[in-house]
Structures are given as structure tokens and as C-alpha cells.
Predict the 3D structure of the following.
Amino acid sequence: MSPDPELIEDLVVANHILFREGVVDGFGHVSARHDRDPSRFLLARSIAPATVTVDDIMEFDLEGIAIDPKGRRPYLERFIHSEIYRMRPDVLAIVHSHSPAVIPFGVTGTQLRPISHMSGFLGTSTPIFEIRDAGGPATDMLIRNADLGAALATTLGSESFALMRGHGSVVVATSIKQVVYRAVYAEMNAHLQLEAMRLGKITFLNEAEAANADQANNGNLDRPWALWKRRAAMPA
Ligand code: MN
């Protein structure tokens, strides 16, 4: 069964928003679980997110195999998506990016933590995926097979966000709008946390504050989506 055309349209818009908001560049990707078949997901072919159109959206099974590729080349790192969807039935959308402000946290062991109410989804700790544990000391850092994808999904566990050492991050959510929101604010949180660290000791949101702020923001996802969608459609 074909996915809802609106889901595909939103996924295209999500690609454009993530570029305009500085989360992805030539690299990085966003996926959505198929709305009529939970054993499949939707992800663009291997091109820059800003250039994605409806015809670029491909369908995959949870092995990371394209259903009807029509000559389109998939992202090498699609196993990030397939293995998280397999391990996390609650997850309906995923962003993988190399958003720059997040990278320093993954390489220092300094946890990215919620500095403001906008990033309560970060919870009390952010797991860091160490690819050497799963792939040995000589990988090219890429999640290029299902085993590495499964190891990343295991590191993510039940969290919403995980750092990938020397690479980037992965963020998960229950909708495209929510995952875009989380990807944008994870990058913003990283900027703010780096700034605050220069000033002194940081008081982060505690567990209850983070959970409550996350819940409050989840009721307000249409507002930033409408703004970002409009901005993504404007000439650069
Ligand atoms: Mn990557």
C-alpha cells in the first residue's frame, strides 16, 4: 500500500527545513516510518537534502533494502534508520546529521544536556555511540551495515537523542514535525551549552523539568513547523 501523499510531502519539506536551519548540509538525512506498513520506512535517495523532491523519496524494509529503487541510489547510512525502526516500535521519524555544534560533545565525553525548556527532550543524559566498540579500530566511521546500525540503536536505547563520536548525532521522535523540532533545538542547545560553559557552572533542567518541558513543547509543534516551512520556501 502506498504511503499517505501528505506524509511524503512533509518528508520533502523536512529535508528543506533541516538544510535552511543549519542541521544538514550536503550530508545528513531524515526518514519517516511508513504510515500504512510499520515494517517499512521512507527516505530520500542519496542526494543533498535541500534538493529532495517527491520523486526522490524511496521506500525501504527494515533490512535497509529498497522496495522499488527505479535506479535511484540509496544513502549508504540507511542502516541507521532501518535498525532504529526495528528496535524502537514507538519511533516514527529519525534525523541523522553532522550538525556542527553537536560534534564537540561527542568527542569529549561532555554530555549534551537540556540547557533550556526548548530542549527537554534531551533528558538527563545523552548516550555517546563509540563505533570502535562495534566495528573495531579501523572503520571509516560510517554506519554502512546492519550490524553497525544495530549497535547504534542499542546505544540510543530508549532515549530521543544520541551522539556519534567523531561523526554527528541521531534524533528520534513520533512525527516528522517533532523530529525536525528536536534536530533544530539539539543544535541550538549545543551552541548555548558551549557559550554557557565559558561563563561558569551550568544548572541544567532536572529530570522532571526536562520531561514536563518536552510534553509542553509537543503540544506546540505546528507553530515552528509553519515558520520553518515558510522560511525554507523563501529564496536564500
Ligand atoms: Mn553520517
